Amino acid sequence: MQLLLNTLLNVRSTMSDLKEIYCDLNARMTENGYSLERRGSVNDLERVGLTLELALGMKFRFYMDDLDKHGKPDDIMFEGIVIHDSEFGYLAKQQSEVFWRSDISDFENI
Predict the structure, then answer these.
(1) Which end of the chain is more exposed for a tag (fewer CB within 10 A), N or C?
(2) What is the rounded distance in angstroms from the CA atom of residue 79 to the CA atom of residue 31?
């Protein structure tokens, strides 16, 4: 299990120049904004040396765990920026269509 987790983390760090940050897509606060004030998001930001405050305005690839139709891991993803909303706090503002990790050709070739 740990080997699988390490492999996924390595894939996340090599697929794109964008850092990948966890985002709970069930925490939708606005039409295209998802709360980042969750443990997974904060932990991922800390892993790359950032806080929510320091990440403000930066672009990331946001992901949430998901499974494909066969039950295999296939994260759901989107690209966006970190914003601060006066009512809801720090949000991942979605700027791309949603896609799955398996949609990225680099992942298929690893």
Answers:
(1) N
(2) 15
Asked if the model's pLDDT at residue 18 lies above 90, the reply is yes
Name, in order, each residue with C-beta under 8 angstroms of 37's C-beta and a sequence gap of 6 or more. Answer: 52, 89, 90
- The whole-model pTM stands at 0.80
- Ranges of beta strands (E only) in 4-105 are 20-22, 28-30, 33-35, 59-64, 76-85, 89-94, 99-100
List residues bridging with 79 in a β-sheet: 61
Could you report the per-residue pLDDT of 24-66, keeping only the tens digit for each? 999 999 999 999 999 999 999 999 999 999 999 999 999 999 9
Angle at 92 between CA 89 and CA 93, to 5 degrees: 105
